[in-house]
Design brief:
Elements (H helix, E strand, L loop, with lengths): L23 H9 L5 H5 L5 E3 L15 E15 L3 E8 L4 E6 L4 H6 L5 E11 L2 E5 L2 E4 L13 E3 L8 H14 L11 H7 L4 H9 L7 H5 L4 H27 L11 H8 L6 H14 L6 E6 L5 H14 L3 E5 L3 H15 L6 E4 L5 H13 L4 E4 L13 E7 L5 H11 L8 E6 L5 H7 L4 E5 L10 E6 L3 H13 L3 E5 L7 H18 L5 E4 L5 H12 L5 E4 L12 E6 L7 H8 L10 E6 L5 H12 L3 H11 L8 H4 L16 H14 L2 H10 L4 H4 L2
Parallel strand pairs: 4-6, 9-14, 9-15, 10-12, 10-13, 11-12, 13-14, 16-21, 17-19, 17-20, 18-19, 20-21
Antiparallel strand pairs: 1-8, 2-3, 2-5, 3-4, 5-6, 5-7
Bound molecules: adenosine-5'-diphosphate (ADP) and magnesium ion.
Magnesium ion binds next to helix 11.
């Protein structure tokens, strides 16, 4: 008998453009967020959920609820308090609520006449005149028409420009329609599945994309539903395997053994204006003994902001130089690369070691000259951005690659570096530095391919940053404090809230904050940086700040990573209650770099939940990054949105290393089983979760 339908192409090979209504343009947009196949779409998982399956009486709302309400406009008026706003009062017989708009058009205002019926969705918060919703989604509805609410909980997806939530939901709907028995392989070894009683893959996917109205939304938003845990397990497994494969490959590779050969390192140490701390010495000894081996070092140095990782990296670079080989230092931004280059020059130039700086900005003749010196080996230590590893850059003999701020690069780029440095069948040693300190058990999972050194001591003589926690209604005091600091010749940062969901609203908010601070502080030169600005402009503003031409730098969290402006001694962080503790700690590390007493003001929006209060108190009470992350892990309650996922340990879609840590032992076992068995399953699993699985497939 012949089959009645042609065998279908498996979903991991079907391009998204094979779906109805998905043309090449949309295909390209989706590819930007890594969605190329129908399988990719199915594994594009919601970030959280909203309940729009029913209309909730206004009178029953509590602060923090995200709900659909329906009611009649009583009054709509524009008020001028601190900020111009359109306020609209809505009533449904059970209660009254205020809708607050900071951005609105005249037409929008005109349409909100008394008696208009609206259906709204948004988050309820306490306002000056009772409960309110800021910028609700809303539409007009006719009286009496029971216009439908949603049939399942609403998944909120990560999106990209050009693909809105609604579109994303429609797309996952199309993909789900293609999902049928056996169209996706379950790569988890069957005995593992049985022993942990996890739901089947297809059922889990259907559930997470379209949870039924009776689903436990709190459980889902906490990421603890069995369907999510099923997927998290697979994701953690894929990452674990990919990291172990990397490590296995490295352990088979050859490297130049870099034993001590001359007294370069000793001379460098003797020339430093300080002595290494005990923790720096320990890290250096660990690195030193790795470098002597015939296989590439794969080591991570973890150390709090300001713990002095750079100088340790410089010593390692000198070991390469002692052997007539080269070292390359890669930083995530041009600004940081320049900063490192200055440090390295200061330490190495007196020793007669040539240091080169290569960023995207270096062009023309200068670039060609540097390329020649790299290829010929005249430049022994090069510092740069990823430009260092682009085509056209050749090294004579690259024996050591140093990567600063690991999470901005990720495993893939490190693999690229490894290939780039290959000479005569030997691979460079790798040293990775990160300022995100995490406890050892977690590190072993997140960095399964790396050995870890810890610098858990700050150099002596630092004045600790004084941290205060203040409600947003004391903002004016804070602004006058900035005024005083800047008049006294000091500089300050103002970090803008992360509350807006879209990148464009976020940068708009930053712009408004900068404008209102500039208006309130006429004698202060205010600069602005945010993620949407072109790199060159961003760096220009940062540079003026560095050079003291800007007094107050308003920024989104782009300043998080290692910029050193010793004269900046005050930092204000808005909506601190919404941010992860580790992230706040990193931000705070931008001040307290000079000798003057520095302070950090954490502004929060009242009222503060007891948990949020306790979390912010951690920052007030300690300046120790390890302590901060330890307490952070302890305190993270369910439903916490910002956590490890945002600190960039790993790019995880559904798993969370902390929340799902109980899965880790089984993940480790399953990883061992699969690696032992080998075969094509591994490549397929990695392609599903890690992307570009083929690269790891060479087992
Ligand atoms: P991070 O670990 O955040 O990268 P850096 O390497 O930038 O820290 O070091 C911060 C500052 O401390 C630099 O100015 C550096 O020269 C200085 N420093 C490093 N080690 C010591 C030390 N042992 N004693 C005093 N100052 C040090
Ligand atoms: Mg650093």
């Amino acid at each position: 008998m012949r089959p009645t339908t042609a065998p279908r192409t498996p979903l991991d090979e079907r391009p998204v453009t094979s779906l109805r209504g998905v043309g090449p343009a949309l295909g390209e947009t989706l590819a930007r967020i890594g969605v190329r196949t129908v399988q990719d779409l199915l594994f594009h998982l919601p970030l959280r959920y909203e309940d729009r399956t029913r209309v909730v009486p206004i009178g029953s709302l509590r602060p923090g609820d995200r709900a659909v309400i329906e009611g009649e406009v009583q009054l709509a008026e524009v008020v001028f308090r601190r900020r111009r706003a359109l306020l609209c009062r809505l009533a449904d017989g059970s209660g009254l609520i205020t809708l607050r708009f900071f951005h609105f058009s005249a037409a929008q205002q005109a349409a909100l006449t008394r008696g208009t019926r609206l259906r709204c969705f948004g988050e309820v918060r306490p306002g000056p005149g009772g409960p309110e919703i800021v910028h609700p989604e809303y539409r007009r509805v006719a009286e009496g028409t029971a216009s439908p609410v949603d049939e399942c909980l609403t998944p909120i997806y990560p999106t990209t420009e050009g693909v809105q939530q609604g579109r994303m939901r429609a797309l996952t709907g199309l993909a789900l329609a293609e999902l049928h028995d056996g169209s996706l392989k379950d790569w988890i070894p069957p005995d593992v599945l049985v022993s942990s009683r996890m739901p089947a893959l297809e059922a889990a996917l259907r559930y997470v994309h379209r949870p039924p109205p009776n689903a436990d939304i709190e459980l889902l938003n906490a990421g603890r539903h069995p369907a999510q845990r099923r997927l998290a397990f697979e994701e953690l497994l894929a990452h674990q395997i990919s990291l172990r494969l990397l490590r296995q490959a490295a352990d088979r590779d050859d490297a130049w053994p870099l034993t001590a050969r001359t007294d370069l390192v000793g001379r460098c140490l003797a020339g430093l204006p300080f002595q290494l701390t005990g923790a720096q010495q320990r890290a250096w000894r660990e690195i030193e003994s790795d470098l002597e081996r015939e296989h590439p070092m794969m080591r991570l140095v973890q150390g709090d902001v300001g713990s002095g990782k750079t100088v340790v990296a410089a010593l390692a670079a000198l070991r390469a130089v002692e052997h007539g080989a080269q070292a390359a230092v890669m930083a995530p931004t041009e600004l940081l690369a320049e900063q490192h280059a200055r440090n390295f020059l200061g330490w190495l130039d007196p020793l007669g070691v040539r240091v080169g700086l290569l960023t995207g900005r270096l062009t023309g003749k200068a670039r060609n000259a540097l390329n020649e010196d790299l290829a010929g080996g005249a430049v022994q230590v090069s510092v740069g951005t990823h430009a260092l590893f682009q085509e056209g850059v050749q090294f004579a003999r690259l024996a050591l690659v140093i990567v600063d701020e690991q999470h901005r690069f990720g495993v893939h780029q490190r693999m690229q570096l490894r290939e780039k440095g290959r000479t005569d069948g030997r691979y460079p040693h790798q040293l990775v530095m990160t300022a995100t300190p995490i406890p050892r058990t977690l590190a072993m999972t997140a960095y399964a391919d790396l050995d870890v050194s810890v610098i858990d001591e700050l150099p002596p003589g630092r004045t600790p940053v004084r941290t205060v926690v203040l409600p947003d209604n004391r903002r004016d005091e804070v602004v006058s404090r900035i005024d005083a600091a800047c008049r006294a010749g000091r500089q300050a940062y103002w970090v803008c809230p992360l509350i807006e969901e879209s990148e464009s609203l976020r940068h708009q908010a930053a712009e408004e904050t900068a404008a209102s601070l500039a208006a309130a502080l006429p004698d202060v030169r205010v600069g602005l940086v945010h993620g949407r600005m072109p790199g060159a402009r961003k760096d220009a503003v940062m540079n003026s700040f560095k050079q003291g031409q800007v007094d107050l730098l308003v920024a989104t969290t782009v300043i998080e990573v290692g910029v050193d402006v010793p004269n900046a001694s005050l930092m204000v962080i808005e909506n601190a209650e919404r941010m992860g503790l580790s992230q706040l700690h990193q931000l705070r590390g931008r001040v307290g770099r000079g000798s003057v007493e520095s302070s950090c003001v954490l502004l929060y929006q009242s009222p503060l939940s007891p948990l949020a209060r306790e979390r912010l108190a951690v920052l007030r009470d300690t300046n120790d990054g390890f302590e901060v992350s330890r307490r952070d892990l302890e305190l993270r309650g369910p439903g916490e949105l910002l956590g490890t996922r945002q600190t960039g340990l790993m790019q995880l879609k559904v798993a969370d290393l902390v929340r799902d840590s109980d899965l880790l032992p089984d993940v480790q076992k399953a990883a061992a089983l699969m690696l032992e068995a080998g075969g094509a399953n591994i490549a397929s699993l990695l392609r599903r979760w890690v992307g570009d699985g083929e690269r790891f497939g060479k087992v």
